Amino acid sequence: MSSNRQLFFKIEKLNTAEAVLEEKSVTINGGSIDVGSGGSRRKASFELLEPLPANWQMHKWKLYYGYRERTTDPIIYYPQGVFIPINPSEREVNSGFVTSFQGVDKTKLFADFQLDTPITFASGTTVRSIVQTVAGWFNETKLVLAQDLGTLGAAFSFEEGSTAEQLLNSLVSSFNAEWFYNPDGFLVARRRTDPANRPITHRLDNPASPYYISSERTISDDNYYNKVTLVGGKADTPIYRSTVQNSAAITAAGGRVVQRYFSRDAAVTQVQVDALAAYYLSNGVLLPATLKVESLVIPNLELDEIIQKDNKRYEVRGFNIPLGLGTQNIDAGEIL
Questions:
Q1: For residues 251 and 311, is the Cβ–Cβ distance under 8 A?
Q2: Residue 230 contacts residue 241 (beta carbons within 8 Å)
Q3: Sequence-distant (≥ 6) Cβ neighbours of residue 178 within 8 angstroms
Q4: What's the pLDDT tens digit per position in 279-308?
Q5: CB 127, CB 171: distance < 8 Å
Q6: How far separated are the first and last CA of the chain, in Å rounded?
Q7: Distance of CA 336 to the CA centre of its chain
């Protein structure tokens, strides 16, 4: 990769249907996109070297990271997410005004929405149809939903005051699935897959990779466990429990048993609870080492992708996209 990479950024202002109202090339004074699990998957923070654009704070906007290696090359743009702005502000400096922007992906809409009446989904309802229903509350039509996300084995209720985010988190995770917003602003719901079976998407082996700069590998038990108890069911359904442990991992750990407890209310069959417990157990024993990589920017990196470093495979758990000249930090868990 050339050290002469030129960076370009643009923002699209979107209407309610997320059609582009205006496209604006911008000069960004530092900042980053931060991507990680939990809550909004994508968060943005940066400064624009210009006054606050009129009415932009009232709209969703889509941010693009662009670059070219030579002035004769076309600019390649990568979407970095559709964002809800949070408290933009501007300040005056000697050269004019600087605008500070913060934004989070559209998961915030689900976190801010609270049920004003209880809601019940009947036994036999598919999780896919529930995701479609909840997305419809926000007129969300940009959906990428797996066909088989699971089916409710019993009626499942949510009380008033529950958020739409809590509703989806509880239901989707109970079927070994996940939901999130991708860089193009589509709501994705999909089955989780075993990281050991995913393809390698980026190879950071030095000197083969043009991205790699340095790395730090630490053995940590933050995400390590070799025994799992998972409980499913609600007050109006039977309680289902599954406890599993990995004897090989316990032996490798010198007989040390690390127990983790999970509760998944919508898991209301023994088969479902057993399968979830097995998944969480494999997650704990497969990710004992953390890799911290400092790299030149990989603008199309995504969570859960598999990267290779020194002939070892790692699952991406978090990273940033610097919005300026700088290096990218990647956190990943080793897959044994």
A1: no
A2: yes
A3: 172, 189, 190, 192
A4: 999 888 888 888 999 888 999 999 999 999
A5: yes
A6: 30
A7: 23
